[in-house]
Amino acid sequence: MEKKSIHDILPVELIHRILLRVPAKHLARLRCVWKLWYSLISDPHFAEMHFHHSPASTYVFIENDTMAYFVDLDALFRDNNDALQVRKVSLPFKMKSPPRFEVLGSCRGFVLLHQHGRFLVVWNPLTGSSKLISYSHIASRFKPRGWSSFDFDVYGFCYDASHDDYLVFLGWQNEHGRDHFHCFSLRTNSWIDFGDALLKPLGFDNWQSCGLFLNGAFHWVPSRPKDYRDAILIFDLKERTFSTISAPEQLRTSYYSSLTLLGGCLALYYYNDDSYKTDIWVMKEYKVHSSWTLYQIPFRFQPLYLPSAMDLIGKGYDYEWELYIYNFREERLQRRFEHHCFFIDYAAADAVYTESLLPLPSDLKDKDKEENEEEEVTAHTLK
Questions:
Q1: Domain F-box: where (predicted)?
Q2: Furthest-apart CA atoms within the chain: distance in Å
């Protein structure tokens, strides 16, 4: 009796649908099973579709400056302890001296790394694809205020769908108090000076460094807002203009504030020393001031991920570094993960991201170049 392959039983369309539901971290191995599967999984259009079918979030942080650690946040809800195991991946660009990388942010499965004072790296931990971005030409031209070496005050990392491009933004204030704002395009492999967008000094040194990208714009908040009015700074990517929106009137301006994204909504949070609670203000309708809604966590807590309407995953700070789940309905705080003997900067050394097989624009160019070269070789051989 003739043996049938899986392709004789299942049509290609059905295999395609099944693969779209397989976690991204398993697809790399599945590419080696069949030539057809390799072709399906390696297709950039499949990678795009799979990303939108894979809402699961992963938490990434760096330890000892050489290794990245990944925690499946959705696995925190499972009772199986094996699901809480941490996956380790070596950092790109091995160097003779310690690289001292820090995580600045993430976007569509890519993590933005920074080696202090030297360069940035856009890295896909799943595929291993990476892009080194040097800002040495900027550092050589500008002397920052109050620093012996160049360093930027604010930054951002986003995807520009209108141009299918990934953008990295850097902002800083020089020794004369003048603000500078530059953007790097991965598609064009070039820097853009957005100095014309700065109509007045913004005082970048006073803003929380990490820019939150939402609705086509970056958002920053001062470390300690002077007033709730115009407390959140916005840079519109399309219009290339700055503007501000107001925080809640009840905002405690004496506390250090930060921004995050919860359930697709802009959220502002800070630790309230008076009540010993973390105040989390969520703007449920974008730019609608009356939609600010207060939630409180009875703990020093950094919100990370909102997997459901009633549960919030966040990072706690005590003698050990820990991840917690807080249930709003039951007002219950549950510790679900701890990592001993590790200290992480409260401000910016970690990120929440979604694993993906997406390529960088430079990867697509290299692939097209290789295919064109193969076609030229084939055509020459046929002659």
A1: 10-49
A2: 83
CA distances from 106 to 61, 119, 152, 233, 382 (A): 11, 16, 18, 20, 46
Number of neighbours of residue 94 by Cβ within 10 angstroms: 8
Residues in the chain, pLDDT under 70: 1-9, 54-55, 64-65, 78-85, 94-99, 117, 142-150, 196-208, 253-254, 317-321, 338-349, 363-383
Distances (CA, A) of 149 to 11, 139, 146, 208, 345: 60, 8, 9, 20, 21
For the sheet containing 292-297, what is the strand order?
A: 258-262, 265-272, 277-283, 292-297
Rounded to the nearest angstrom, the gap between the alpha carbon of residue 367 and the centroid of all alpha carbons in its chain is 25
Q: 351 pairs with which residues across the strands?
A: 60
**Cα gap 349→63, rounded to integer Å:** 10
Return d(Cα 87, Cα 312) in angstroms, integer.
Answer: 22
Question: Is there a contact between 279 and 270 (Cβ–Cβ < 8 Å)?
Answer: yes
The DSSP call for residue 377 is H
Token output for 54: 């894979």
* Token representation of residue 35: 């030539």
Burial class of residue 71 (count of CB atoms within 10 Å of its CB; 0-12, 13-18, 19+): buried
CB under 8 Å to 237, separation ≥6 — which residues? 158, 160, 167, 216, 217, 218
Q: In the prediction, which pLDDT does 140 show?
A: 74
What residue ranges define each of the domains in the chain, with the CATH number in brackets? 55-355 (2.120.10.80)
The whole-model pTM stands at 0.83
Residues 61 and 361: their CA atoms lie apart, in Å, by: 25
Angle ∠(111,115,116) on CA atoms, nearest 5: 130
Q: In what order do the strands lie in the sheet with 241-245?
A: 212-214, 217-220, 232-236, 241-245
Where helices occur in the chain by DSSP H, the ranges are 6-9, 12-20, 24-30, 35-42, 44-53, 136-141, 361-382
